[in-house]
Every structure is written in C-alpha cells, then in structure tokens.
Amino acid sequence: MIREEMISLTREHVFFSWTAQNKVDPIPVERSEGVYFWDVNGKRYLDFTSQLMNVNAGHGNPKIIKAIQDQVAKLQYIYPGTATEPKARLGQLLAEVTPGDLCKTLFTLGGAEANENAIKFARLYTGRHKIITRYRSYHGATAGAMALSGDPRRLPVEPLISGVVHVQDPYCYRCPFGWTLDTCHRECIDHVEQVIKFEGPENVAAVLLEGVTGTSGLMIAPDEYWPRMREICDKYGILLMDDEVMSGFGRTGEWFGVDNWDVAPDVMTMAKGITSGYVPLGAVVVSKDIADYFADKTLPMGLTYSGHPVSTAAGVATIEVYKQERLVENAKAMGAILKEGLEELQAKHPSVGDVRCIGLFSVIELVKDKETKEPLAPWNAKPHEMGVMAQVPGALRERGMFSFSKWNWIFVVPPLCINETQLHEGLRILDEVLDITDGGCT
Questions:
Q1: Tens digits of per-residue pLDDT, 156-181?
Q2: DSSP string covering 305-319, please?
Q3: CB–CB of 60/34 below 8 Å?
Q4: What is d(CA 176, CA 179) in angstroms, rounded to the nearest whole number?
Q5: Which helix (H) or strand (E) holds 287?
Q6: Does the N-terminal peptide bond of residue 159 adopt cis geometry, omega within 30 degrees of 0?
Q7: 87 Cβ partners below 8 Å, 6+ apart?
Q8: 0.70 exceeded by the pTM?
Q9: What is the largest CA-CA distance in the chain?
C-alpha cells in the first residue's frame, strides 16, 4: 500500500486517540527493529519513547516473536476458566520478580482494565469505598481508571465513578507547597495523611500511586516518599496500591519503579512492558492476604480474554528476554549516561528548566525563564497556546526521531536495549531541537 492510500484510508475509517481528527498527520509505518522503525518511504526514525513507553525490549525481538508464533500454532484461545502452561508459568514468574509477598495474578488486557480491577480488589477486601490518588497522575481511559487519574484528560468525560479523592504531588521542581529542595519539609507526604484524616480513615480503601509518575510529568518522588506512604497506609489499615503500567519491567533500572525505594505494595498493576507491547496484556498482582481472602469468596472479575494464551506466552518470553539479555541492568547503566547527557543539555540551553531521569525514564521540562520557571507552554495548553512548543514534534520527526511531547515537556524513554552510540545519536537530535525552543525564552 502506498503512503497516500494508507494515510487516506486510515483517516477516513479509523479514529485517532486524544486529538481532533483533522489535526492528524500520521507517520505511515512499515517495519521496525531494535530502537528504530521505518516509514513506507524508507525513512528511519529513532524511537526515543518506546512508542507509548511500552516497547521496553525493543522492536522485533526474535524470542518474543517466536513464542507468539509457537503459541498461535498450538493453542490460539481457550476460555479463562481453564489452566494453560503460559498462564501458569507467567503467574509464577510475576510472583518471583515482584516485591514482597505479591503472589497471585488476575490477568487483564491492558493497564486501564488492571486499575479497574484494583479498585474492586480494594473495595471488596477492605469494605471501604474511597480511593486516594494524585492530581498529576494517569491510570487509563476507562471510566474507573479515568476517575483515578488527576490528569486533565478526565475533565471532558466526567462525571465518572464516585469515591476518588485526589491529593497533591511530590513535584519538587514546582513544589505545590512553595518549598525549595533546601527548605522542603516534605509537606507532600504529610498532606496525604491529612487528607486521609479529613476523608475518614475508616472510609479509605486504598492509596494508589504510580511507581514513578509517567505522562503527567515524570516526577520522581523524594526518597522518603514511598516508605512513608507504606507507614501511613499501615497505620490506618489502608491498602497501598502501586501502578507500574509505565514504570515497570526495567524502565527505571529496577524491575519496578517502587523497587528503587525497597517498598512492597499490597496490590500492583502492570501492562505495557509485560509483553513489550507485542500483544495486549495487563495484570493485577495481589498480596497473600488478599489472595487468601478470596479462597472461599467469589471473585467478581474477569472478561472473555483474561489470561489469553497468546498474550501470556508473550509475557513469559518477554520476562525471559529481560533476564537473558540483562535489559534491566542495561537500563540502569544507560540511564546514568542519559542523565549526564540531559544535564549537559540543561546547562547549555536556556529553555531547559529541569531534567528528571531514573533509569531510561526521563523528561525535559522547558521554560521561558529559568529564574521564574514560567513554562514554555502552559499546563493543559490548547493548540493555539503552545507557542514554540508546537514546532517540537515536527522538528523531531524531520530529524528522524519519534519522541512524545506534551505541553512544555519532551519525554525521553528509549527501549531498554539501546546502546551508548544510539543514546548519543538521540541526544544530538535533541540538542538541535532545543536550539528552536531556546527561541521562546524571554
């Protein structure tokens, strides 16, 4: 299919997510391999955000592809009430790589569905209704998951489910309480406990946090944050739930984002990197206490494709690839190089106000003025408010890079298989594009 026909037919018959349909200018993609993909005209793009932060193992890994092919040839689908080898094996592997006593998994087909079921687990197990999440968070686009999300993407589709209470974030660069790193009193932690008291601890089922905040700004919490969340939840008999959909499976240089602080949640949700995006799969993994609770009680969860044999086979192969190819370790090593490169860009470019990096999970925050921290584009900016930031996607694409940008952020989240040469290739392109954003400084 030629480029024009591919784009024309897609525009005519398919909706594009999160955009006005007449604004779309899609790349007509033909193939991919490693950290690159190519359009139908043969132009190569460096994938510097692993698509939607999910192709962690890189494109075209032959071991994952073979596992999918072999499973399709052997057993394509069977109803969820059966036992299959890939489902059994993946459940075992997840119990091994997740922290604490997380031991039993409900399989879903994506992160939003995983978070929907996390709500059910929390409410059924505790008998309480309220869920506390953060304002700068995103947990998915289904009704329950969207209600959990503080991100403004929820606003056009409200009202959603009841019982969700949002709290402020550990956004150190723009502290909502007005502190600096030198004067910080960790109000972002005490604030959560205060809200729990206001809402009535006896009413709060769970606190749900992303391991590391993703597309809402990639905020890395202070070292005390996760351990204190564990203490607060234990104090009031509240479940601590960890959304690792984006920060999981090696992305931060550890198996899961929360592992950076040696904290074990009661419930963990995941998707994306569990199959490296090759086929849809999500999961909710719960502690032994929660698992035992449902030993003689009906679990009112599950859909037609829960535990799909092809998806779980891909999950087994993907985890084996992470281990065999030492991708988690590579993410940590390359992350140190990436962090150094981003800090050099911050020192060089007046438009780079902050860089945040943990493993191969990073963001560049762009400002008009480093002293005032005025964003280069406003929070929740409309297209006509984007200013010079509107040039960023096209400038990256023109130079052969695919990277996700939002408001005044450019995300840098490459596949975990990236090497140092490829990292420097990406940093060089970013350096050129930041010359453009510097033009928006005051």
A1: 999 999 999 999 999 999 999 988 87
A2: TTT-HHHHHHHHHHH
A3: yes
A4: 8
A5: strand 282-287
A6: yes
A7: 107, 307, 309, 312
A8: yes
A9: 65
* DSSP character at residue 41: T
Distances (CA, A) of 437 to 136, 338, 351, 376, 442: 24, 20, 6, 8, 11
Number of Cα atoms under 13 Å in the Cβ half of residue 214:
26
pLDDT at 3: 82
Task: Tell me whether residue 391 is exposed, middle or buried, using C-beta atoms within 10 angstroms of its C-beta: 0 to 12, 13 to 18, 19 or more.
Answer: middle
Please state, in angstroms and rounded to a whole number, the distance separating the CA atoms of residues 263 and 228. 10
Neighbours of 187 (CB within 10 A): 16
The first and second tokens of residue 439, run together, are 């033009």
Beta strands in 54-174 (DSSP E): 102-108, 130-134, 164-167
Instruction: List Cα–Cα distances, 15 to 11, 23, 138, 153, in angstroms.
Output: 7, 12, 21, 17
Question: 105: which DSSP letter?
Answer: E
7 dihedral zone (left: phi>0; alpha: psi -120 to 50; beta): alpha
